[in-house]
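Bit of a strange request maybe. I'm writing a small parser for structure token strings and I need a real example to test against, not something I typed by hand. Could someone generate the tokens for this chain?
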Amino acid sequence: MSNPVAKIVDRHLKIWNTRHAAERITAIPSTYAEDVVIGEPAAWFSGFAGVELAIKAVQAQMPGMDLAVTGPIQTTGDMSTYTWTLAGKDGNPVVKGRECDHGEA
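Reply from user aminoacidic:
Good idea to test on real output. This should exercise your parser:
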């Protein structure tokens, strides 16, 4: 995986799929900027603590589910986008979406 954006997306998804809060909290600063903002349908979260709160909320709502990239990562300038699914162990997606990220690789 030589694409720097793909590496960041991989780290991002690993954090969101990690069930142990202590592991996530340790990994968050190496993946996100301090001024990170995450927009979810029910709320906006900011900063490292906000990332953790957003993940906890999603995992509480959809326990045992994992995020996975489902299409190519498209990048232009400092913007990237890709499609994803949230699925259980059977692999059947219960949610599909598109991620839009702004930042430096």
